[in-house]
## 1
Amino acid sequence: MHNKTIAELALGLRNGEFSSEELTRHTLARIASLDKELNSFITVSSEHALAQAKAADERLANGNADALTGIPIAQKDIFCTNGIRTSCGSNMLDNFIAPYDSTVVSKFNSAGAVMVGKTNMDEFAMGSSNETSFYGPVKNPWNTNTVPGGSSGGSAAAVAARLVPGTTGTDTGGSIRQPAALCGVTGIKPTYGRVSRYGMIAFASSLDQGGAFAQTAEDAGLILGAMSGFDERDSTSIDKPVPDYQADLNKDIKGLKIGLPKEFFSEGLDNEVARVIEAAIEEYKKLGAEIVEISLPNSGLSVPAYYVVAPAECSSNLSRFDGVRFGHRCENPDDLEDLYKRSRGEGFGAEVKRRILVGAYVLSAGYYDAYYLKAQKVRRLISEDFKQAFEKVDVILGPTTPSVAFNLGEKADDPVNMYLSDTYTIAVNMAGLPGMSVPAGFVNQLPVGLQIIGNYFEEGRLLNVAHKYQQVTDWHQRTPQGFE
Ligand code: GLN
């Protein structure tokens, strides 16, 4: 059952091959036996899931089921869940029980999906390896000495290990695409504003965007369709109808213009990863696509500009965790200042503190123009590059990451090197564009991700382009040893 896609499971549920309760019990049993090694879950919500499964079975029997009714899914632990702990991977929120559901979670609830738990993540979504989580690192199911990527590493690893057929994630600089690539699963980050951020704990508000992980593009479209849509409670949510992402999945891609940015294939890209991506491009040629060389001249500035903008926004967003309004409170404070200092000192981990310090610095009087304002100007240049590129091409293809999964601990003491693992993903967030990663092969028995970038609100086209590739390849069906 656990190797089936969401589309297949939905069919099985409808045809009465198994009930949602059976499927949910099977899922929970797999998590209980296999996740000890991976640590991809922070919280498993068994009782809640079984109650939802029973309700889904009734709905299925009554014939008013949606695509996700009765399907087990897991939420990244950044989405608030009413009555269930929402930790954001931090000691700061270790005991936080949200009093409401995020919009994303309530949308899954109305679709009748079954939430089996909350997945592990880098603390406050800051990281590229899932090693900054207060709950310990997540292991990559392809090789448990390597990282799953971050920050949505738990969500990616859980799908790769076939613990659950679909999960949610968030992507501020690459946190869906990068772990999807490193774990060999399909991940999509939609256009900024497509998925509501209400109840999604904020890291860098102008970049954060929710999205999906699944085995296939078809499934990723089912999840994305369920979680997307306008929300008046998020002022950056966009009021635009959500298309049926299944409708165009099979559309012919003959004549599709694919842009290859030369900056994504230069120094810094592992040779063997490059070869895998070139082979994927050959597949697209066979499918009738036309390849066009393009340039994104400012993409090299995306990592440095991001590490000004994202920390600036995080220093402001995280100021609410002061032990008074939100978050961990220290024992026996001497006075208010001591309470703030010790609560924040104890609650936050090292990477989060580093970001807050950098953010406060770049926003401070005297430095604002030199750093923050400058970074915003660079951000505009990056967006302009994409705008020009999309005048010539329909989609942009390239590697998702410069290398395959690295070893646990390998980059933990080298933040700049760690930051560079998002070198091909961050520009997409800076411009607010949609991006995807699909499994495209292996190097040293570790998965390689192919990145597909589209113009604003072209999620349907990305899913179509990914689906066509998945019809002629089987990389997305490979399962790590021990998790078959
Ligand atoms: N790795 C990047 C960071 O640490 C991106 C994280 C994310 O997308 N949430 O900021």
Note: Residues 125-128, 151, 170-175, 203, 310, 422 surround glutamine (CB under 6 Å).
## 2
Amino acid sequence: MTQSFSWQRAVLKVGSALIAPDGNQCSARYLLAIAHFITASRAAGKQVIVVSSGSVAAGKKQVPVTHSPTIAEKQAMAAIGQMQMMANWQRLFDIPCAQVLLTAADLQHRQRYINIQATLRELLAHGALPIVNENDTVAVDELKVGDNDNLAAHIALVSQADTLIICSDIDGLYTADPRQHTDAKFIESVATIDASVYALAGGPGTKVGTGGMRTKLQAAEKCTQSGIQTFIVNGQNPAVFDKLLEEQRAGTYFTPSQSPARARTAWLTHTLVAQGTLHIDKGAFQAISTLHTSLLPAGITAVSGQFKAGDAVTIEYNGKPVAKGLTQYGSKDLLTLMGLHSSQISQALGYHQGDEVIHRDNLANFAQGV
Ligand code: GLU
């Protein structure tokens, strides 16, 4: 029996085999069904972020080599192919497609992390379709996420998605590689991703597991631990997208270990170490604790400690810690901003990182209970 699920914001990972099925240029062959899924989901009020591979495959034709390509040659392929890949997506939509290119280093850098988050939020708010890829032209191996399955998991986390859908070229996870073992059984759902599940993908240390299954499991593990339900589906099968549109599960479903909000609150509260404290007035306390709003500069009465934008800080009211969150401004700037109206930020600092000091998505109220 098919089981239902619900979702609001999904990251959809589309691999090179779907973008450039012949290995050397982009094609709409498999993307029509995917584009229809995205358009219909958006019409139903849901949000989708695409993580798209295919830049290297799409640019291969223009950088013909007979040997195995050097890094620079691959980067040239990516630079050419990225344009074609984006153009290929754009012709399937009336809404603007927005190119977001990043590397592992960008995700590790706190300030850039919150910039990525703010940009994705803004793109979705303006009805654009963010299409993310690794910035292959600048990234060398040490700076790379390396594969777009794991990149998609990072994007699901940074964008606070509730769902990750990884489009593969097989139906999902099997007990063995179905291309080699005719008796391989399909696995409909996985409750916990442990060593026995990794063993199905070829076991640890295998470079390319069952249909590249290993990196997909890593992505699923990252996401489910943070409350994000994950699917591995066959992106070549349009029926999959019809099912997902009806909120019926398709492919292999990986159960999230807890709700995304709870996972995020736990991460903010327990994992991150506060680098300083923001003291707030009664109005701000009421706003964040009962109305669950963002924290604005106007409500801040004092700043203690030294911290940078992107750091975790404790929020205190009346001498008691009441919340914790990720600040968009560092302590030095907050000493200037405290008590000011958000409209005065640009003038006071000469730049504007957002109206909020802590966006409500990055705020965990202690009163809510963890
Ligand atoms: N970023 C690579 C590309 O666009 C793909 C990496 C992957 O598919 O895992 O060609």
Note: Residues 309 and 328 are 5 Å apart (CA to CA).
